[in-house]
Amino acid sequence: MTAAPDTWSPSVSRALQWAGGLATLGGRDGTISPDDLFLGLLLAHPDDEGEVWCFLAHFDLTARDLLPDDYPAIDHKALQVAAAAAPSTPDPERWNVEISSVLAEAGTRTGSARVANVLASILALTSWIDRLGTAISRSGVSAGQLVPHFRDECVPELKFEGPRRAGLQIRDWLAERYPRRRATMPSFSNDRPDPSADFIGVGEEADAFAYLIASKALVPPLAVGMFGSWGSGKSFLMARIRQRVEQLSALAAAADAAGGATAGTSAPDGAASGSTQVWPNVVSVEFNAWQYVETDLWAALLARIFEQLSPEARRRLSEFSRVRERAEADREAALEAARQAEQVVAERDAAARTALAKAEATKQEESQVAHDAEQVRARAVEAALDAHARTAAGTAVVDAVAGAMGSDVADAVGEVRRLRTQSADAPWRQGRFWSRRRVVWATIAALVVPLVTVLLAVLDLGLPVAVTAAITTGAAVLTPMLRSAANYRDEQRSKVDEALQKVETKLAQHEQKARQARVDAEKAADEASDALRTATEEAEAARAIGIDVERIAAGLTPAGVLADRLAERRASDDYRKRLGIVSTVADDLEKLSSLIADYNASVFAGEHPPGERPGDVPPNRIVLYIDDLDRCPPQRVVEVLEAVNLLLAFPLFVVVVAVDTRWLTSALAKAMPTLKTDGGPLGHAPTPTDYVEKIFQIPFWIDPLDETGRHRLLRGLLVPSVRPAEGGAPPPQQEALRAGEGEFDTVDRMVAVRGAGLDLDARDLTITPDEFSFIEGLNSLLTGTPREVKRFVNVCKLLLAMSPPLEGGTEPTTERKAACFLAALSQARPTFAARLAAAATAAPSADLDTLVSNVAGAGADEDATALRSWLAAQPVPAPPAQPVGSMSASALLKRWEMIRRLRFTAEPA
Q1: Whole-Å CA distances, 529 to 85, 306, 355, 522, 523
Q2: Rg for the chain (alpha carbons), in Å?
Q3: 241/235 Cα distance (integer angstroms)
Q4: Which of 258, 251, 245, 193 is nearest to 219 (CA)?
Q5: DSSP states of 583-609 as a string?
Q6: How would you class 408 by CB atoms within 10 Å of its CB: exposed for 0-12, middle for 13-18, buried for 19 or more?
Q7: CA proximity to 405, closest of 520, 508, 499, 522
Q8: Which pLDDT score, from 0 to 100, does residue 561 have?
Q9: DSSP-derived 3-state class of residue 471
């Protein structure tokens, strides 16, 4: 071992010690590479004011972003192993050629090799410039420009003896010369009309989708379809998106808790301090459709969602729970009392109406009875006493009126009529007058005169004397008879009077009965009205109590209500017990969505301070990740898509589905024969793609893995399993390194993860009025349904928000406008767009007019003619600006790799 040169600072010597220990990890022979020295420089100053830390943090990078994919994973255990294996003094014999060159250059430039000098020399290496260029491209910075400026301008000006550390000086220089570009988050228009208005290299895509999904500006529902063949990396990309969403959410929660901004950052435009543009509590729910293929889908899916929404870390205040339970019980009791009171009011109202109607009816009945009685008196009885009222019509009137009064009145009237009829004749003309005695007397009277006359004539008394004597004798005999007849007539008249009195009595009774019925009915109506009044007052009181209870219940926070709801669901285990019979799905989702919407609104209104523990509050959004759909039978595929469609009915869910489109198309065609894979004999039948487009708002196609990607993946997967070289690490020497809290924190935040920062200055995507007019002018290139137009707008927003940033301006040929133009062409004429991109790749210096001519020569005349017509209709800009036809091939290709993947079907040939 040789002693360290005097030109090395103690920090560089410490970095070389760390590099020596790191070089033994992953089964390597201990030869130190620039990668090892780079990490050594980071660990030499293991805090957020260190030179390497400040340089990386400015671009939202970590050391892992710049290290090769096959570099050994570094965790706490590996760091301790490296510390134990580190030499006490640097050993130049273990340096490779690049290390020697880096240290020599660093010492030569400044006379003293410090951490900043060595970092600048490492970054100047060709391989590191390429890595750095890829990592910082999303910030719109060129590594070929940055590294020389950093090495020749920044490092020589550093004041190592001053009060401000070198890392902070580097951060200040970068902030001035290369201001950090703020991330832009695309907005999104869902399908609901709104009149107001890694190893395989998928980091950029995952970051763009993660910001979109976690953004507060996004108004769900949103469904993203990850399409590709089996093994193309769909599941990995979905996992990266999920991890990044969770990472952004956690960082947002930490930023809110810390007051919204860290040193060197500020709150976004228009955002209050302490509030980020990303939701701090986004809940991820993974659902493998294939694992539940034998069970009821909705039961399994809802059970999974509610399990994730009730993590063990959620804590609920017991006092709030008791208050809520009491409030809920009081509320239910008040509602029940109000319902019962309303029912009593309804019943008593009906009773009062009935009583009033009955009282009115009895009044009419009483009047009718009086009228009928008067009829009987005036017509029936008097007619019965009138000897001339014996016609059939008169008899019928009397019978009808008397019959209406009742059978007793009818009988009495009949008796009067019979007696009067009888009394109207002479007694001797009435059969009842001739009793046996009267018959005998009448016979004697009839015989006595002739007998006396004959007898006296026989006695020779003379005829006159005989006649006179006979008459005298007959008169004496008839006198009792006549007296009896007079008595009979008097008796008949007396009975008639009695019968008349009886009729009057009966009529009076009926009148009294009707009168009493009316009085009783009126009394009952008054009582019913009083009861209704009392019931109404009681109902009003019950409603007032219910309103007070509702007001108390409204004071309960949505967080607590939701926590209780989820705890209740989890405790009841309804979904697990009722797999196959889930009748409350829509109701529960509606309640869940409503509660979370209320809570999110209260967050925006500032009713909840930032920094609340995510486990103690409701989720701001639920992201459902569905995988392995392309393992399920056709009917289950349709059921999952139907479930996704139902979830999208609630502004709570974002759904990401990974599926092989070949399987999806085949399953839909088999399960739904109406869908024709070829469009039917006339080409107008609905296809599986039409069905899928109705479900997903953003399609994304996964490219197959190329050879380089496979190599990176292979090495990255194998490195953790490589055993150390024979003989193990060299034994520790005196003054060996120790891995402490600073080093552990450095590994956790700057080595073990890739770019994990949350851009606190993130802003909503904006477009200029000139860009708006240009995109609006693309309308004539588009075809299709409103859904397709809306998808085009969403794609444009996503393309413009992605990294690296696109060049803009007022000219018609900017990169931003070129991306939107090619997106419109790709959606309306995908085959022509693919040929145009291929022509641009073959002729990078050509312009759009030339490319269209080249493609037209390949046989795409119809599409080329339509595009030429559109180009001819575009306004001619004022010089020196060039027309749209002058758009360069490089501008067209800037976003082509992303555009061609935002589709539902395989890439056009």
Answers
A1: 100, 53, 9, 11, 10
A2: 54
A3: 10
A4: 193
A5: -SHHHHHHHHHHHHHHHHHHHHTT-S-
A6: middle
A7: 508
A8: 46
A9: helix
- Summarised one tens digit per residue, pLDDT across range 619-644 is 788 898 888 888 888 888 888 888 88
- pLDDT tens digits, 239-265: 888 888 888 888 888 887 776 444 333
Query: In DSSP terms, which residues pair with 8 in a beta bridge?
Result: 113
Cα(453)–Cα(202) distance, integer angstroms: 162
Give percent helix, percent strand, percent coil of the chain, each to the nearest 5: 65, 5, 30
Q: What percent of the chain has pLDDT over 70?
A: 64
Cα distances (angstroms) measured from residue 806 to each of 203, 396, 711, 881, 895? 18, 111, 31, 18, 9
Alpha carbon distance 175, 167 (integer Å): 12
Per DSSP bridges, beta strands 653-659 and 222-227 are parallel
CB atoms within 10 A of CB 765: 15
First to last CA, the chain: 63
**Alpha-carbon torsion 102, 107, 113, 115, what sign?**
negative
Cα 116 from Cα 50, distance rounded (Å):
9
Adjacency order of strands within the sheet including 698-701:
282-288, 621-627, 653-659, 222-227, 698-701
pLDDT band at 740 (very low <50, low <70, confident <90, very high): confident
For the record, the structure tokens of 202 come out as 């998928």
Amino acid identity for residue 182 in this structure: R
Let me know the angle formed at the C-alpha of 678 by 675 and 681, rounded to the nearest 5 degrees: 95
Distance CA(627)–CA(656), nearest Å, equals 9
Range of weakest confidence among 151-160, 566-575, 735-744, 770-779: 566-575
Residues near 260 by beta carbon (within 8 Å), at least 6 away in sequence: 267, 272, 273, 274, 275, 276, 610, 760
What DSSP line would sit under 429-449, residue for residue? GSGGG--HHHHHHHHHHHHHH
Angle CA 13–14–17, to nearest 5: 90
| Partners of 223 in the β-ladder | 655
485/442 Cα distance (integer angstroms): 11
List the beta bridge partners of residue 282: 621
Residue 132 to residue 146: CA distance in whole angstroms: 10
pLDDT above 80 for 566: no
| CA distance readout (Å), 49 to 57, 75, 114, 159, 263 | 10, 21, 15, 15, 11
278 near 215, Cβ under 8 Å? yes
Cβ neighbours of 373 (radius 10 Å)? 23
Cα 493 from chain centre:
98
**Contact assessment for residue 9 and residue 115, using Cβ atoms and an 8 Å cutoff:** yes
- Using DSSP's 3-state secondary structure scheme, residue 796 falls into helix
Cα 508 from Cα 398, distance rounded (Å): 17
Whole-angstrom distance, CA of residue 114 vs CA of residue 117: 5
Write down the residue that tokens 């009076």 correspond to. Answer: 508
Tens digit of pLDDT for each residue in 869-906? Answer: 899 988 888 888 889 999 999 999 998 988 888 877 76
Largest CA distance in the chain: 211
Q: Distances from the Cα of 346 to the Cαs of 343, 525, 533, 610, 619, in angstroms? A: 5, 16, 11, 51, 44
What one-letter code names the amino acid at 199?
F
Q: Residue 165 is encoded by which pair of tokens? A: 């550390």
CB 751 within 8 A of CB 51: no
CA distances from 107 to 110, 545, 843 (A): 6, 85, 46
Provide the residue type at 690 as one letter. Answer: D
Place 736 in a pLDDT band, splitting at 50, 70 and 90. Answer: low
- Banded pLDDT at 316 (limits 50, 70, 90): very low
